[in-house]
Amino acid sequence: MTQYSHQTAPTQFVDAAGVRFAYRRFGKPAGVPLVFNMHFTGIGTLTSEAQRIFGASYAEPDLLWQHVHFDATETSQAAGAAFLKRFRLRRENRDPEVNEKVAPAQIEALSKWGAPREKPYEYLNAIQQPTLVINGDHDVIIYTINSYILQQNIPNAQLILYPDASHGALYQYPERFVRHVSMFLSE
User: For the chain, what is the domain count?
Assistant: First the structure.
């Protein structure tokens, strides 16, 4: 198997239950894979801060990205600009563009997930896989408290909160994130 990096791994696709997922595989060819599931949300299901962010106008699309994923502080915004430079290093075989089907599907999934029910976190107890939850200490897209709820209700879950960080903590602290994930996977 050819060894790819995050910059060179080809984009591949898999269909599951009628949904097409894009993925890239790189690193060790054997063992349990690490899976990241990116998500999209609709404006009606967002926090009030997120509604302001998504409802605003921006001179450049990058400014929206920075407001979504990085805290408003000078240091966090500088980290956001650095991330966007790294992100653009990949010139070929980039992620497919999001289309008009994404937001409605995400809204439908969120409405089912967020529907009021008795014992709303009980299902989390059934997750037996060791789980690492990483977030920023000031996530205004999906409030940070939700990461704590996950950690408290998933058996064998660990929680790491990065300082001065929002929804894109892993982008803001890429080296630290890789060290933490590597340590978690080596246990």
Answer: 1
Residue 163 to residue 134: CA distance in whole angstroms: 11
Residue 25 belongs to some domain of the structure: no
How far apart are alpha carbons 94 and 63 in whole angstroms?
A: 20
Q: Give residue 118's region: left, alpha or beta (phi > 0; psi -120 to 50).
A: beta
The stretch 92-114 carries a mean pLDDT of 69
Q: Is residue 151 part of a domain?
A: yes
Boundaries of domain holding 161: 42-100+109-186
Whichever domain contains 121, its CATH number is 3.40.50.1820
In a domain, 168, yes or no: yes
At residue 36, the pLDDT reads: 57
Q: How far apart are CA 68 and CA 138, in angstroms?
A: 11
pLDDT in tens, 10-65: 777 777 777 776 676 767 777 666 555 554 444 445 678 877 887 788 888 788 88
Beta pairing, strands 19-23 & 12-16: antiparallel
SS (H, E, C) 25-57: CCCCCCCCCCCCCCCCCCHHHCCHHHHHHHHCC
